[in-house]
Amino acid sequence: MHAIVVPMAARVKGRYAVALQRKPAIHNEVKEHLSGMTRKSSSDVESLRRQVASLKKENKELQKLVHQSKRIPKYIPPPSTINKETILSFGLSLVGTPKWLTCGAWLKMRRFRSHFGVGPSAIVALISDMKRLQSKPINLTYLFIAIAWLKIYETEEQMAGRWGYGEKHCRDTVLDYVARIQAMKKWRISFRRISTKSRFLPVDTVHIRCQEFRCTPDSKWYSFKFSGPAVAFEVVTDPDTGYMVWINGPEPANIDDCVFLRGGKKDKPKSTWKRSALYFHIPSGVKLVGDSAYSSQPDKVTTTKDAHDTKTKKLFARMKSMQETCFKRFKDFKVLREAFRHGTGTDDKMEKIKTSFEAVAVLVQYDIENGHPLFEV
């Protein structure tokens, strides 16, 4: 049998015809395959889109948390009803203690006092009186910044980093609110608040360290306690309540205690003495108790004498010790413990020291009245 030989052209033409017959099927297969790939790609794109949206949301939340951690709200008015717990929580949150961090009440109070110097009950009473006696609204954050400055005594640059405000804003805020705290002195520290049981009141002076008075260099600023420049303040307390009832100063640290009390030297006419001196403001029926530095003014101040009985000596000693405890409370605030560095001249420096000292005294007074008294005499 002879094989049939098909010409090459015919074979090619036949294959082409078969391919043409299969073309629709191949086209459908390719189309279906591409369609499947498109659907899968669309699904993958949609999944990626959802993941990107989720990541963007998480990133936004993280940025918000970071922003909140670095910035303090610019205005936080005190709540209409404030109490010890809310002030404690607010103060700790300002200085970076997270709310979720659990610890005992004693440790919380230690942390609060380490930043603000007094307890939350004292600040509650201060806010209540400021709202009642001052017309300006209270920015609670700014008030805490000022109290923390008195306690920690940070520089402007340190405050800017801690609180998230500019240096000038921190400076202006502290000046304003420290002055507002000082303004409460006339209501909280006054002879009008003497207990009816008190017949003797301890008096003493405390020295506050400061930087050199470059505009008026003089040995009168020298303090034997610090071997350097300082100023003196005069303080009288009530031994029955432990409250401060008089503050006067500042005067150069080298001033004699009796000269401070009188407002002038003894060999000068009384008409030349300062009328703002303690000598002219001692209530009737009350006598002061002081150390030997006041021995030259026996008509106003009683000092411990050998002729006194043991009971009287012990009483006077406890009065003086209570006074020193009060001064220790002052020095717990770094603004009064470290060298005071503010003021562009002598008068400005003296005024700023006075403002800071009296503001601290007001805070200590509120603390004494609200759960942190001096020891009983």
Automatic annotation (TrEMBL):
Q: Which UniProt keywords apply?
A: Coiled coil
**Which positions are tagged coiled coil?**
38-72
- Record has Coiled coil as a keyword: yes
Q: What is this protein called?
A: DDE Tnp4 domain-containing protein
Q: Please give the organism.
A: Thalassiosira oceanica (Marine diatom)
